[in-house]
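Hi all, posting the design record for the shared folder.

TITLE: backbone redesign
STEP: 1 of 1
STRUCTURE INPUT:
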């Protein structure tokens, strides 16, 4: 199974974002955390920075909106150059309509769930999405420790994806590193957001390659992949 590694610029040097984007050019996507200091207790960057990043790199942008009122703001991130836009179901007023609008504008639509949000109530929404993000830490800050209690939720989500025969990517974000990525892949994830594990390495590009190798090896042996 192909694994995708999305380095998170939340762990990069914000004064050198163009250079930091180039440092991981072998990555599948560049993960951009957008925080508004309302939905989460942190403030990061917005549409102008995404526009600048889109011009500075050929790596597609995966924008994770940890903001209130994503129904209003998410389409602007597609227009700014994001190839994938993730909104939190806890903040969206009309998630199906929003997912369709993101897709209609030409980007992949993704929905995120905080650790305490169960997947089961949203089973019927899955066909409207291109990716589902299971948060493996509480959203808002980088560098947090991975929550092992999220592994059963990842497994249940993978089972629902398989049940409906969907080509839906399953992303995990939070505490993903060389010591946790294999457990995530074994549980069913195939897209991995890694912040400090990539940008804290001496060679970020090599860190991306190593994480991808670990994830693909774990996926190849996983029961869910064999059944897929």
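Okay, here is what came back for every position:
SEQUENCE:
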């Amino acid at each position: 199974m192909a694994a995708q590694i999305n380095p998170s610029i939340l762990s990069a040097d914000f004064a050198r974002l163009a250079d930091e984007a180039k440092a991981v050019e072998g990555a599948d996507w560049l993960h951009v955390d957008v925080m508004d200091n309302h939905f989460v207790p942190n403030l990061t960057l917005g549409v102008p920075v995404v526009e600048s990043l889109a011009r500075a790199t050929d790596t597609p942008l995966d924008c994770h909106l940890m903001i209130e009122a994503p129904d209003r703001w998410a389409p602007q991130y597609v227009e700014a150059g994001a190839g994938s836009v993730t909104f939190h179901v806890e903040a969206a007023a009309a998630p199906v309509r929003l997912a369709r609008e993101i897709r209609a504008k030409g980007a992949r639509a993704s929905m995120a769930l905080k650790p305490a949000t169960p997947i089961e109530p949203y089973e019927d929404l899955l066909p409207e999405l291109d990716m589902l993000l299971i948060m493996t830490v509480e959203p808002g800050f980088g560098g947090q420790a991975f929550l092992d209690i999220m592994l059963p939720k990842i497994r249940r989500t993978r089972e629902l994806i398989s049940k409906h025969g969907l080509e839906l990517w399953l992303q995990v974000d939070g505490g993903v590193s060389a010591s946790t990525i294999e457990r995530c892949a074994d549980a069913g994830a195939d897209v991995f957001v890694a912040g400090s594990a990539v940008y804290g390495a001496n060679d970020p590009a090599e860190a991306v390659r190593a994480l991808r190798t670990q994830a693909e090896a774990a996926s190849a042996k996983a029961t869910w992949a064999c059944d897929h």
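COMMENT: The first helix runs from residue 17 to 22.
Let me know if anyone wants the other runs.
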